[in-house]
Design a protein that fits this description.
Length: about 160
């Protein structure tokens, strides 16, 4: 199983190219899930109460809170304008850690999806193993928070 993981012992060259390709739905990657920390960060950014932010910008699917998806945006993030993130400083952990998600570190996923769709892979400075491990931990911790904060559907 260890062979299935990409090696990043020597780091990975990555620099965001601002393409916006990570901000669009590609079937398996669609929703931008939000932890309570993400929601509070957004609420502060927009100067809205948590309740008002959720009402204006969020949906719940299968008990998980995520940014609203609008049909007219064809799967693009609601905060993506002209291939630029309009909420970059307050973006959720899911966006902050891209492309270094635990689910992406499988060789097949990395080689057949991530490196193909993310033009920043192989460009810019080397992201060190230490930094990648930090991002992977943030992704893991954020995922635990999202699971913990799942909204129980009303029966």
């Amino acid at each position: 199983m260890q062979d299935d993981l990409i090696s990043f012992k020597h780091g990975i060259r990555f620099e965001c190219q601002g393409s916006g390709k990570c901000c669009v739905s590609r079937n398996s990657y669609g929703f931008v899930y939000l932890s309570n920390i993400d929601i509070k960060r957004f609420s502060k950014f927009f100067k809205l109460s948590v309740k008002a932010f959720k009402k204006k910008y969020c949906q719940i699917t299968d008990g998980f809170i995520h940014l609203t998806e609008r049909k007219e945006l064809n799967g693009n993030c609601i905060f993506l304008k002209n291939k630029m993130c309009t909420v970059y400083k307050s973006r959720p952990s899911q966006c902050r850690t891209w492309p270094f998600w635990n689910d992406n570190m499988n060789s097949k996923v990395w080689n057949e999806d991530i490196s193909v769709n993310c033009p920043g892979i192989g460009k810019g400075k080397i992201i060190t193993q230490t930094k990648i491990n930090k991002l992977l931990k943030e992704d893991f911790d954020n995922e635990k928070l999202i699971l913990k904060n799942r909204v129980n559907p009303v029966k």
